[in-house]
Amino acid sequence: MAFTQPSGGDDDSGLMAEINMTPFVDVMLVLLIVFIVTLPVIQHSVKIELPKAASSSSASHPEAIQLTIDQSGKIYWNNELVSFDEFEKKAKQAASSDQMPEVNLRADKRVVYDKVAQVLSASKRNGLLKIGFVTETP
């Protein structure tokens, strides 16, 4: 696109009276990029020297309970076959300990869902609330 100069004299009808904003926008974008890059480098923190002390962890984590339900609906508590009544007793005993144990539930994919629902309901009823479902990666 070419600009033409008005021919002759005092006729200002062909002159542009607007400011070209393109260089201004370019400069602003460059400044914005500079600020975005340098902002993470600037850290707003107070430099302090913390006291040093040696201590050991006094809280021990309870071992996770391995709860397995096989294809036929049999319940295994830490790889030990238990009846449903024994499971409820063990669940109540485990829930009454000082630290809440975590239950890792492994259910066969062919087990009847009703059996899994019964085990989950009995776990909740007896106080075991931390239950995780164990799956295998494909």
Could you give the order of strands across the largest sheet? Answer: 3-2-1-4-5
| Class derived from helix and strand content | alpha/beta
The proportion of residues in beta strands is 5-15%
CATH topology of the domain at 70-133: Nucleotidyltransferase, domain 5
Radius of gyration: 36 Å
Helix/strand order, N-terminal first = HEEEHEHE
So what's the oligomer here? Answer: single chain
User: Sheet bearing the most strands, described?
Assistant: 5 strands, mixed
Mean pLDDT: 80
Terminal-residue CA separation:
62 Å
Number of helical segments with 4 or more residues: 3
Which blocks of ≥5 consecutive residues have pLDDT under 50?
A: none
Q: Helix coverage percent of residues?
A: 25-40%
The CATH architecture term of the domain at 70-133 is: 2-Layer Sandwich
